[in-house]
Amino acid sequence: MSRKMHSTLKRWIEELETDVEIVSSHEINEEAGSNLFSFGFNQCLLSEWGRESVQEFLASCADLYKRKCSGSAMVFYSWLDNQAGQIRISAVSESHNKLPFGCKINMTSLEQVVDDIFSNDSGLYTKGALDVWCKNI
User: Fold this and answer.
1) What does pLDDT average to in each consecutive run of 10 residues of the chain (137 residues)?
2) How far apart are CA 10 and CA 2, in angstroms?
C-alpha cells in the first residue's frame, strides 16, 4: 500500500483482510450478499481522504478479494449507494454473466465511481443507470 492512502482507509483494508471470506454459490444473490461490504462516509471525511486515496482504497479492495477468492473466476465490483451514504463492494462468480442489480447499470471506470462518490451522484437518479466499476479477479 502506498503512502497516498489515508490511515482510516488503510485500517479498513486491514480489517477486510481479516473479515473477508469469499463465498461462491450457484445463487447470485446469495453470493453477492455474502461478499458485500459497505463503508460509510460523509463529505468531511472525503475532504480529509482525497480522491487518490479513495481510488487506491478501492483498487486495494479488488486486489484483496482476488487474493481471497482461491482461484475462482470472479468479478469484483464497486458502486456508490448515495441514499445510504456508503461505498459498497462485492464479488460474484464470472459464470453468472451478470451483476445482481435490479436496475439499469452503467459499467464504468474506477475513476468515474470515485467521481460519483465525491459528487454524491451514483448516476441512478440523474442518468437513469447506476455507475458500477468491475474488475475480473
Assistant:
1) 79 95 94 96 94 96 94 94 95 96 96 97 96 97
2) 9
- With CA atoms as reference, report the closest residue to 91 among 68, 120, 123: 68
Which DSSP letter does residue 57 get? H
CB 73 within 8 A of CB 58: no
Count the helix, strand and coil residues of the chain and give each as a percent rounded to the nearest 5. 40, 25, 35
Quote the pTM value: 0.93
Residues 6+ positions from 47 with CB-CB distance below 8 Å: none
Element (H, E) at 108: strand 105-108
Enter the C-alpha cell of residue 113.
465511481
